[in-house]
What we know:
The protein is an alpha/beta fold and 198 residues long. Helix content is 37%, strand content 26%. It contains 7 helices and 7 strands, in the order ααβαβαββαβααββ.
Amino acid sequence: MCPKKAYFDEKAAEWDTLIKDEVVIRIKNMVEELALPQGSKVLDLGTGTGILIPMLIEAVGSSGAVVAVDFAPQMLAEARKKYQWPNLEFLEGAAEEIPLEDQVFDEVVCNSAFPHFDDLRQAAQEMARVLRPGGRVTVMHPHSREYINDLHVSLGGAVKTCLLPEEEVMLAIFAEAGFEALTLEDVPGRYCLSGRKA
Ligand SMILES: C[S@@+](CC[C@H](N)C(=O)[O-])C[C@H]1O[C@@H](n2cnc3c(N)ncnc32)[C@H](O)[C@@H]1O
């Protein structure tokens, strides 16, 4: 098993205890601000133990659907234990090779996972592939880029090189993947890249 997958699998059982209440509130606010339309089909990429899942399910309603993808089986197992809805599906798979058809989602939301992907360009291209034209990508963190990168360097080990690129590089990665109307907000307590598939 690759070291990063093993790292997340080892952390899976305690993962939820590592997320502070104030951070959960920031994530909730960020999801609410997305104003996901009822009935949307949403991909939660790098779902982990599924912190976004109840927020996404509530937003899209029973006419929408959420697919939660992660490459670490133990993280997915923790999410599965907590959440079951008829319109929720879990899938084990890599962001660089999302095990889903083309153009099936209205939204891809990726919280606190993008810098962990081994091939950022390939992951952005896969996000574009699974979105319908006009669909939206959101790459978010409840922290600034500086905070995230400092944290990963200080944690070391499997995550020490998991860094969010500079703003111009992020925007170029997503523009090259076929996204337009790109915006990127990076302030203390909040990082959010958004774009629409052309
Ligand atoms: C820091 S956790 C965040 C999990 C969750 N989104 C959250 O906000 O709590 C990053 C997640 O990304 C997953 N991940 C890392 N690299 C991945 C890849 N290449 N493909 C799919 N999932 C990946 C990890 O297994 C882990 O569950």
